Amino acid sequence: MNALEILLGRRWILKSRDRELYYRMKEEAPKIKKFLMEKLGYHIVVNPYLIKVEKMPAKPENWMGILEFTDKIEYVFFCMVLMFLEEKEAMEQFVLSELTEYIQGQYQEEQIDWTVYQYRRHLIKVLKYCVNVGILDVDDGSEESFAKDGSNEVLYENTGASRYFMRNFTQDIMGYTKPEDFEKEEWIDVNEDRGIVRRQRVYRQLLMTMGMYKNEQNEEDFAYIRNQRNMVQGELEEYLDCELHVHRTSAFLILSEDCRMGRCFPEENTLSDVVLLVNGLICEKIEEGAIVPAVDESIWIPREMFAGILESCKELYGKGFIKTYREMTTGEFCENVKNYMLELGLIREEKDIWLSPAIGKVIGKYPEEFLENGGSDEQ
Known about the structure:
Blueprint: H1 3-9, E1 13-14, H2 19-40, E2 43-46, E3 50-54, H3 72-85, E4 93-95, H4 96-106, H5 117-133, E5 136-140, H6 143-148, E6 155-158, H7 179-185, H8 196-208, E7 212-213, H9 219-227, H10 229-237, E8 242-246, E9 250-255, H11 270-288, E10 299-301, H12 303-317, H13 323-326, H14 330-344, E11 347-349, E12 353-355, H15 368-372
Antiparallel strand pairs: 1-3, 2-3, 4-6, 5-6, 7-9, 8-9, 10-12, 11-12
Helix pairs in contact: 3-4, 3-5, 8-9, 11-12, 11-14, 12-14
């Protein structure tokens, strides 16, 4: 993997956890610094603790949150952990009770009672995430002991990385009242008339999302990619093994199998394989005329039809799934697949279900022999 793939695909490279890669990226970062700044508006942060690219999407999406978090209070606890660590030096130790007391004192919306298991469970999820990404190290004890008894202690060490988790802001954000304020802040010092903002939005959309779809809000951006297609393709090929596919109302950056820039679809798991099969069934329905795209190529189908496609997938191919998915009830199976497709941005759930054009880009089928054997590999 080259430096661009690694730095765009990871939150950061911590010197304490991957010393060799840290020094490799420190050496190679200058080679991609100009591309990141000019095409994406991204800065590279290099310091004694870590190397990271400060990434911002062209437009925030629901699936861009911390996947480990499932409740709003977990984000609140996480922000409070970052606030707590602001007063700690790198390599400074503290015990869990110091943090829990701090959160109780800072949280205003409700009274946090650590004898309540639910609150402890939320905090444990946050602390495990902090350890996993390298914000904290556990020196003694276990979070699970705190789950069993709120009086149990855990000894943590601050790595110093927490101060670099949030991106740097050029303006005072205390007056911001809505998410859109952060989007505007991104471009305050940039002259939009020069096309810099448009170019950076386009490159961010291609590199950091599943695809780019034409709509009333981004017609100028889409015109840019259509008119500058060869230039964009050439610049991206310098750094990545990829192909740029531009259609009438959508554009996709297709990475080679060897290119691993963060999270890509399909992934190497059963749920990803299931979605490939679902995509195939959707494409079959389009070919049969059972699903008809609109004039602008957008596709909306009733929830009932989408549920029926998922049920058909389990019925047709279920014998080929691993035991976990074979033994799921139809309802559980459909919910798991739907949530995964929502997470990937392949569908959007409103009154009806919106189907992303990306669905037609990657589909899967079992071999004919497999189906002839009734979904079994046995001859």
